[in-house]
């Protein structure tokens, strides 16, 4: 970064914080943008305090992961009706390869 006339740091792209100590790559594991307070604004498909949870990996691609790493499974006629800890099972009476048959 660079020092401003007022004596604060102006961070280069991909860095944030009073001393530019937070980086997108390290703080947010490359899956989000670091904030000035050391948090992350995660890219789509990622969540968690450091963007450490991935929809595709954590929820088998059949749900969205919340802030604490739990899956919220998809349940509709297009994406299928999924259930289970990792959204890898059909919900209720739904069957078939895509959990779209009743």
Describe this structure in words.
The protein is mainly beta and 102 residues long. The protein has two domains: 1-44, no CATH class; 52-94, no CATH class. It is 8% helix and 31% strand. The strands form six sheets. A three-stranded antiparallel beta sheet has the order 11-12-13, with no helix packed on it. Strands 1-2 form a two-stranded antiparallel sheet. It has a two-stranded antiparallel sheet with strand order 3-4. Strand 12 and strand 13 form a beta hairpin. The protein starts with a strand and ends in a 12-residue tail after the last strand.
User: What is the string of helix and strand elements?
Assistant: EEEEHEEEEHEEEEE
Largest sheet: 3 strands, antiparallel
Q: Indicate the low-confidence ranges by residue numbers.
A: none
- Our count of helices gives 2
Strand content: 25-35%
Rg computed from alpha carbons, rounded to a whole number of angstroms: 19 Å
Q: Which structural category do the helix and sheet elements fall into?
A: mainly beta
User: What is the number of beta strands?
Assistant: 13
Fraction of helical residues: under 10%
Number of separate structural domains: 2
Disulfide bonds: 42-51
Domain EGF-like: 16-52
Protein name: EGF-like domain-containing protein
Keywords: Disulfide bond, EGF-like domain
Q: Features of this protein?
A:
EGF-like domain-containing protein; 102 residues; 2 domains; disulfide bond; EGF; EGF-like domain; 2 helices; two-stranded antiparallel ribbon
Fold blueprint:
Layout: E1 2-3, E2 9-10, E3 15-16, E4 22-23, H1 24-27, E5 32-34, E6 40-42, E7 46-47, E8 53-54, H2 55-58, E9 63-65, E10 71-73, E11 75-76, E12 80-83, E13 89-90
Antiparallel strand pairs: 1-2, 3-4, 5-6, 7-8, 9-10, 11-12, 12-13
């Amino acid at each position: 970064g660079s020092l401003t006339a007022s004596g604060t740091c102006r961070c280069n792209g991909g860095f944030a914080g009073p001393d530019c100590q937070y980086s997108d790559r390290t703080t947010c594991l490359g899956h989000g943008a670091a904030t000035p307070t050391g948090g992350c604004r995660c890219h789509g498909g990622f969540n968690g305090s450091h963007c450490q949870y991935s929809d595709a990996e954590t929820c088998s691609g059949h749900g969205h992961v919340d802030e604490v790493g739990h899956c919220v499974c998809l349940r509709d006629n297009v994406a299928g009706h999924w259930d289970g800890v990792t959204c890898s099972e059909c919900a209720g009476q739904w069957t078939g390869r895509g959990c779209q048959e009743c």
